[in-house]
């Protein structure tokens, strides 16, 4: 997933309920699919952030020494400014980029 190309809103947006439930015909099922995708996106972002922050990790036994790394702070600020996983999931849902199926059918 390329987060730089994501155009999901950073702020809260109100969506049309009928547009969200249209693919499934059931608002609860649609929200469940969106929530599962949001969890997947969150896991991807967390993994990516952890990998980038590991580059800056210093392992000291001393609790008194605290190092401020400007690159590490910039990476953290970048990830804080990204759209939230649920906003990305809703955007994907509205653009019909999420594959879903009913296992009972």
Account of the 3D structure:
The protein has about 100 residues and is mainly alpha-helical. The protein has one domain. It has four helices and no strands. It has helices spanning about 15-20, 25-55, 70-80, 85-95. The mean pLDDT is about 85.
Which regions have little confidence, pLDDT < 50, spanning 5+ residues?
none
| Mean model confidence by pLDDT | 85
Which percent band covers the strand fraction? under 5%
Biggest beta sheet attributes: none
- Estimated radius of gyration: 18 Å
Find the structural class using helix and strand composition: mainly alpha
The helix count comes to: 4
Number of discrete domains: 1
β-strand number: 0
Topology as H/E string?
Answer: HHHH
End-to-end C-alpha gap: 30 Å
Overall spatial form: elongated
- Helical fraction: 40-55%
Task: Please identify the oligomeric state.
Answer: single chain
